[in-house]
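Work Package 4 report. The design task specified in the project plan requires that, given a folded chain encoded as structure tokens, an amino acid be chosen for each position. We show below one input record used in the internal validation round.
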């Protein structure tokens, strides 16, 4: 007999639509009161179809909330000096409040040098070392969008994270590390697990909040999940089954449904919220640059 489905599916698409509507309303207020139209510059190098598709979605979302997109498309063989010159131009442009250089970058370009060249006040990705350091130091910072998205999704099913056992599986500087910091800020008891962790299932089984960002399709099994846990699946993995390609997360979703209290689907969970949080960061950046308080959204 198969177990009964018990988990609530966290509808990232619907939650993201609400957040985008809130950003749109706040953007209208900012424009009406201060004549500021938040501007986001998105820089794409080359023609990778996945990157192109992300960039198109970001620019469309920017337009829809009444912000101004500045799209820059450079050839894949552009040299680092040319890209640095473009970033400097965007840093100096008062109409540009946020700058995002779409990763991955071609091999002739140092991602670290490019990230470090972005004005930290315009770093809407939250990847600049100054913002990463401010986040760890408990200072106001632009934090990376995916971790912000995860916290917002968790809060739709839990009123408080204080004292909760939270496990972050994955330690990247883009997701795992900053999400662990944000969970800590919410007073969760945070553990970070990674490829060298011994007995990962045992750590998972303790977690009331289980966040996974490892890039391994359906790696986390249902019997690793604590009954009633909140499961946030940050993985986006393309798998081929029966000649058809589909996208799955890092968690075995069908199994998680029988055990978890709430779980994010892939697609339709964290992904749409990440773009909505990029808009939140752009709005925050625009407010901060004008010396205005950022709206609480
Ligand atoms: N490539 C995939 N995700 C991201 C992201 O969040 N920011 C940037 N800059 N590049 C990405």
């Amino acid at each position: 007999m198969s177990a009964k489905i018990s988990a609530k599916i966290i509808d990232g698409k619907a939650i993201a639509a609400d957040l985008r509507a809130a950003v749109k309303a706040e953007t209208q207020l900012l424009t009406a009161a201060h004549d500021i139209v938040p501007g986001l510059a998105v820089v794409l190098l080359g023609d990778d179809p996945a990157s192109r598709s992300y960039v198109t979605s970001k620019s469309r979302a920017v337009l829809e909330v009444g912000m101004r997109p500045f799209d820059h498309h450079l050839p894949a063989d552009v040299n680092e000096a040319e890209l640095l010159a473009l970033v400097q131009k965007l840093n100096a442009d008062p109409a540009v409040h946020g700058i995002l250089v779409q990763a991955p970058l071609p091999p002739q370009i140092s991602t670290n040098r490019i990230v470090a060249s972005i004005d930290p006040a315009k770093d809407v990705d939250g990847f600049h070392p100054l913002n990463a350091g401010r986040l760890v130091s408990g200072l106001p910072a632009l934090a990376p969008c995916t971790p912000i998205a995860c916290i917002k999704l968790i809060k739709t099913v839990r009123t408080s994270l204080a004292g909760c056992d939270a496990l972050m599986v994955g330690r990247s500087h883009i997701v795992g590390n900053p999400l662990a910091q944000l969970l800590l800020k919410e007073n969760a008891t945070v553990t970070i697990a990674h490829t060298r962790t011994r007995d990962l299932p045992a750590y998972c089984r303790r977690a009331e909040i289980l966040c996974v960002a490892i890039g391994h399709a359906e790696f986390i099994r249902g019997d690793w999940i604590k009954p009633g846990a909140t499961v946030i699946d940050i993985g986006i993995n393309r798998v081929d089954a029966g000649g058809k390609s589909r996208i799955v997360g890092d968690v075995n979703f069908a199994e998680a449904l029988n055990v978890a209290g709430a779980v994010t689907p892939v697609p339709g969970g964290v992904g749409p919220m990440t773009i909505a949080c990029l808009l939140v960061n752009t709005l925050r950046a625009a407010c901060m640059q004008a010396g205005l308080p950022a709206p609480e959204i």
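The pocket of guanine is lined by residues 100-103, 125, 145 (CB under 6 Å). Validation will be extended to a larger panel in the next phase.
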